[in-house]
Amino acid sequence: MNEAMQLSLQRISRWGNIVGWTLIIVGGFHALSGFTLFIVGAIPGVLMIFLGLFLTRSAQQARKLKDEHGETALPRLFENYANHIRVNTVLVVISLLYFGITFIIAFFSVPLGFF
Q1: In degrees rounded to 5, what are phi and psi of residue 2?
Q2: Is pTM beyond 0.70 here?
Q3: What does DSSP assign to residue 72?
Q4: Neighbouring C-beta atoms of residue 54, cutoff 10 Å
Q5: N or C: which end of the chain has fewer CB within 10 A?
Q6: Residues 40 and 21 sit within 8 Å (Cβ to Cβ)
């Protein structure tokens, strides 16, 4: 493994861990605050927790690949990253739907005199 790849794996490991744990903590806060309003409000927070878990798992596999050159580390790194992308896509779709529904409600509420 060349030096550039080792440096990249080290960065993935470090920043994946930092951002992953941040997502887990912030997702927990979002889930708690969303749960107090309505159960459905907790879904984005729970998804953020899963994003953090997949990212920290990818970081662990990057560290293992860099340090031990494990054969299973690279496929697991890619698997966890692919799961991260899937969950992130779901979160983006939910956000777009929420924005769209909010926009439609606001658009039709103004002419009806609700605002």
Answers
A1: -80, 170
A2: yes
A3: T
A4: 23
A5: C
A6: no
pLDDT digits (tens, 9 = 90+) for 16-58: 999 999 999 999 999 998 877 777 778 888 999 999 999 999 9
Q: How many Å apart are CA 1 and CA 4, to the nearest integer? A: 8
Closest Cα partner for 54 from 22, 91, 81? 81
Residue 90: what residue type? V
Q: Are 109 and 115 in contact (CB under 8 A)?
A: yes
pLDDT of residue 109: 81
Question: Rounded to an integer, what distance in angstroms lies between the CA atom of residue 75 and that of residue 66?
Answer: 14
Three-state secondary-structure class, residue 36:
helix
List the one residue out of 59, 35, 36 whose CA is nearest residue 45.
Answer: 35
Residues constituting the chain: 115
